[in-house]
Amino acid sequence: MRISILFFAFFFFSAQFLQAQKAEKPLSDAKKKELAEALMAAGSYYNANDLFQELYNSKASPELAWQIADAYYQSRDYPNALIWYGKVWKEAPTVYPDAQFYYAKCLKMNARYDEAATEFEAFRKNTNVRGADAAIMKRNARDEAKGCELAKLIMGEPIDMNIEPMGPKVNAAYTEFSPFPVNNDELVFASLRTDSVVVMGTSRKTTMRSKFYTSRRSGGSWSEAKEYDESLNAMNGHVGNGTFSPDGKRMYFTVCNPAEDVSKMLCDIYMAEYLNGGWSKSKKISEVNENGYTTTHPTLATVKGKEYLYFSSDRPGGRGGMDLWYSEVSGNGSSHGIARNCGPKLNTEQDEVTPFWNAKEELLYFSSNGHINIGGLDIFKVEGRERTWKTPLNVGYPVNSNVDDFYYVTASNGETGFLVSNREGAISLKSAFCCDDIFAFEYIFPPQFVIMGQAYLKGAPEKTPIEGVFVELGSKEKPRMDSTMTVLETPYDFFLGTTQDNFELKANKAGYTGDRATTSTMGLLKSDTLYVDFYLEPIDTTRSITIKDIYYELDKADLRPESRKGLDSLYSILMTYPTIQIEISSHTDSRGSDSYNNDLSQRRAESVVRYLVNTKSVPTNRLVARGYGESKLLNKCADGVRCTEEEHQINRRTEFRILGQVPGTTVTYDKATIDAMRALERERGGLDSRIKQLMEEGELEQIEEEVGSGEIDRAVEQSTESAESIVEIVEEKVTEPAKPAEPSLPAISSAIEVKGTMIFGQAMVNGLEEVQYMYDARRPVVFMGPDLYSRLHKSGTITEYKNSTSVTLADGTVAPGDIFMLSSLQLGSNLIRNVEVKLNPRMPQNLVIGQRLLDENKCKFDLKKNTLNCK
């Protein structure tokens, strides 16, 4: 185990003791070697290495070179370990064939992945590697080579985040570990605050103990670390690994003391309660601790109404090294169930440590050097609970580095957090990778934008919503007749993602004048919802509007150049209301015969239509040309009436009137938006899917090896738990258990409809309310709007609330919590039970489902058949 993995372990034996031995009597080479090997066994790798170096300088040998390499490797000085393993491999490849494996391992720990992969593959073919451990080492070499492949994959697509060491006010020269945010601006952690080596001497006693410290953030900096709590730090032993219950009233933590073997620490989990402004007397959790073994790294999780304590332990019944275990908690910590192993999906033959439950994501994070990794300990994330888990996924780079990364935690905001690492940038006593420090990270989420609003009746004394309005969104800088995105939803909702642009929106409905508006996301630095409302009025189809400044050649239908200005204003109206159909009417004065005037006016109206079609690309089905001749005079100037030229001019005019909606108009979605929906699943075949594939390849190969060798029969937990573990593996790889038959479902439509970037379908909620649902892949959970919640609340079908955050809605309904359970949710022909939902009091939609619900229930949209199918 590395420093601060179990809790933390002392690297250094007594330098003073060693010097005293030298001063009393010079040591023979044999005594030096004996002492050096004893120091290695005690974990004093630096002092041991000093003696090995003296012996090697006196008389070089491959054996001493191997011991020097091992001392460097154990103290995490990978650059020097690489040099010495290379020396051994070069000088004694048949005597020390394992040197090639560790040489490759050091290449990997130095982030030289291509070279490391080559050496691991060569080691697997090395015929000199024999003995009982040969098969295990070659299997490890295979996994290490996969780790090199994984490193190149995730480093090629790094997470957008900032990560940096906390600085000297928090990090000291020795070791800091187990960071845990109390809130977004306060951090509790454990540390051994010393700037020199820890002296244990000839006994196990030392005045140096790890304690809890706290630091607060002000602006962009953290305060000088101070001791956190006197009662906790007064415990008899080294304290650390704190975690809090969601209400902050319980704290679980670890107390560690040296075992009889001075090189080993034994740790137990304790619990304290916050009473009267401080932490009460702590008690050992007897149900989860195991005498003679380490129990450490507690974290609390609440899943589907149950509370669990997850922790790490090296007790019997595990798969090897440190395993992840769990205990069910009841009565607000008054009792804890028997400790049970989390099973082979999480645990490996090596170490799984520092679990952290992220309540917001409902994911368990932990560190492991047994799963495919890119360094030593890597941080993984996994969905599940108790003994049922999906495949753990490597969190990615730069969360993980080429060395050890563990103690991953996030603050309540979900955007910031902390981890512990010995990567470059940590404060070092000896070498670049010797010591563990706390690093702070912040995910960089580019701002995302939504435009939403409602259409209302123009001129109404109170806001009167209009349903079924087409709302179109386009770029203001690139106007065009066809919209970039259209929805038939009021209220409407356009998700823009991270797009920064100037936008133009148009609202239209048959029988109403349209409306348009502009808005912009340019320069916005934070995610925002932009609200834009429209006001429409009923169309008066009897009203004609004269288009000013339309001129023709004398007694001809040809438009004169100066007429374009007036026609461009008409084109602007057509752009504003892209679904209306208009009549272009031309009129003459009474001079000339009726037949002549009818023909001339018809040709003039057609001339206007040709201009709009040929020059402005207006669709022909939106324009109707009609010549009225002298049949609709505006004054007395009929045949035989004497009038001035100005009076005759009034009758020579071109008008338009709105006929209504274009016959047969349907708003279709451009191919790009439909393709975007189809691309959702392809996007989910991205980095996480490739990581999962790599992880599962290694997992499957390991199972195949274990079945072939009989190793699959080894115990995973005490009593009969191992048989259950085997069944879990085989069922996951071979078949799924049959689901019990569901009762007949209410008849609702199974059809889905793609609208822009969203998908819509019919849902039945709690077997009572049929509503339309909207699928939004961006949403992590299921959201419910206030109208549907009020109806369900009044019917008494919502009884199980997950929190006590009360919300008062506009209609006076009071929700006792904003997170609750639905007993059933039917999506088309698919029935899902026990669905957790969050109330959104401002959301106009009744029900919005996110991707997680689909993933958990193995649901996929079939866009060819327009259905949703769940396994």
How would you explain this protein's 3D organization?
- By secondary structure, this protein is an alpha+beta fold.
- The protein contains 17 helices and 49 strands.
- Strands 40-41-47-42-46-45 form a 6-stranded mixed β-barrel. Strands 2, 3, 4, 5 and 6 form a 5-stranded antiparallel sheet that branches. Strands 7, 8, 9, 10 and 11 form a 5-stranded antiparallel sheet that branches.
- Helix 4 runs antiparallel to helix 5 and helix 8 (134-156) packs antiparallel against helix 14 (687-709).
- It is elongated and about 140 Å long.
- The two termini are 43 Å apart.
Question: What distinguishing features does this structure have?
Answer:
26% helix; elongated; 871 residues; 30% strand; five-stranded antiparallel beta sheet; alpha+beta; single chain
What's the short version?
With 871 residues, this protein is of the alpha+beta class.
Query: What composes the largest sheet?
Result: 6 strands, mixed, barrel
Rounded radius of gyration (Å): 37 Å
Q: Which descriptor suits the 3D outline?
A: elongated
**Percentage of residues in helical conformation:** 25-40%
- Number of DSSP helical runs: 17
Fraction of residues in β-strands: 25-35%
**Average residue-wise pLDDT:** 82
- List how many beta strands DSSP finds: 49
Name the structural class: alpha+beta
The low-confidence runs, each spanning 5 or more residues with pLDDT under 50, are 1-20, 195-205, 664-685, 703-742
* Major β-sheet strand ordering: 40-41-47-42-46-45
Distance between the termini: 43 Å
